[in-house]
Amino acid sequence: MKLFRKILLHAALAIGAALFAIPFLWMTATALKPIEQTMSMPPTWLPWAYYLRAPGGELQPVRLAELVTKESYLLKPQSPDVPARISSVMPKTGSFTPIPASREHPHYAVVNSQGELLAVDASQVVRRIQPRWENFSGAIKAMHEFPAYLYNTLALCFLTVFGTVLSSALTAYAFSCLKWRGRDFLFALCIATMMVPFPVVMVPLYGLFKGLGLLGTSAPLWIGSFCASAFNVFLLRQFFKGIPKDLIEAARIDGCGEFMIFFKIVLPMAKPALKVVALFQFIGTWNDFLGPLIYLTDQKDFTLALGLQALQSQHGGTEWHYLMAASLMITLPVIVIFFFMQKTFIEGIAMTGMKG
Prior knowledge:
The chain is α+β, with helices and mostly antiparallel strands. It has helices at about 1-30, 35-40, 135-140, 145-175, 185-190, 200-210, 220, 230-240, 245-255, 260-270, 270-285, 290-295, 305-315, 320-340, 340-350, and strands at about 50-55, 60-70, 70-75, 85, 95-100, 105-110, 115-120, 125-130. It has three domains: about 1-30; about 50-130, no CATH class; about 135-350, Orthogonal Bundle (MetI-like fold), CATH 1.10.3720.10. The chain contains 15 helices and eight strands. The protein has a five-stranded antiparallel β-sheet, with no helix packed on it. A three-stranded antiparallel β-sheet has the order 4-3-5, with no helix packed on it. Helix 4 (about 145-175) packs antiparallel against helix 13 (about 305-315) and helix 13 runs antiparallel to helix 14 (about 320-340). It is elongated and about 100 Å long. The chain starts with a helix and ends with a helix.
C-alpha cells in the first residue's frame, strides 16, 4: 500500500511538472522556428526546414506556404511586382496553372529562394529538423538597445539586492536580538503591511517621486529597497531567533558593540537566509515590469522587461520568433541561478522555521 501511494505521488508530481513545463517548452520551440511556422495551423512543436527535391536529386531550400488538398489554380500575375497566389476558384481571365490536388495526392505551395510561388507535389518536398539559432542574434539586433537594457537591469538588481539584504537584516536583528519597548507591537504592524497591495500605494508613491523630481530616472526603483520589506524581515527574524543567545551575550560581555555583533557574528551565521532573501529580490527585480513602466520614460533607461514590450510593439506585426528568443534569453539566467542555488535555498527556508 505504501509503495502504491509513493508511485501515485511521484506520478502526480511528474504530471504536474510536465504541465508547468509546457509553456517553457513551447517558448523554446518557438524561439527556434522561422516566423512562418510560429503561427502555423496546425501548430508544430519542432522547427522544420523544407527542401524541394530537384530532378537531379539536389535539395533546394524553400519556404512552405500552405497545403493544397483539392483542385486549385496557381494564378500567374500580370505584373512582376504582384505576388502569385493560389485560388480554389478558376479565374475567368488571366493566365493560370491548374493544380490537380486531392486529399490522397496533396500539393504544397512553396516559395523558392527567388520569391516565386510554386505548387509542387507533396512527395517532392523534404522536411528536416533545423533549429534557427540565428533567431537569438536577430532578437538582440531587433531590440536595438539590448546592451543598455541588460546593463540597466543588472545595475538595478545589484542596488536592490544590496539595499534589501542590508536593511532587512538590520531590522530583523533589532526585532529578534534587541529588547526595547514596543518591539512586538511594531513588528506586528510591520507584518500587517504585507496585506497592502502595491496598486494601493502606487499613486501616492508616484506623487512622492514626482515631487522629488525623480521621475524618468531609476532612483524610484531602488530607493525603496533600503527600507526593509515585511516579508524579508519576518524571514530573517525567524532565522536570527535560532542563533544561540549565549553566543551573543558572550560577545557583549567581551565588549562588542551591537554593530560588531551584527556584522561579525550574526551575518556570517545567517548566510543561507541572506542568500534566500537575495535570490527572491533578484528574481523580483529581474522580472519587474510594472515599476519600470511607471517611472521610466527614456528608452535608454529601460530594463529587459520593458525592452520585451518595446520589441512586441515596435513593428506592425509581432515577430514571434524574435520575441520568444528574447524571452528565453531573459528567462534562462533566472532558471540557471535558481538551479545552482537550489540547495542553499532549501536549506535557508528549512532552517528559518526551526525556532519560533
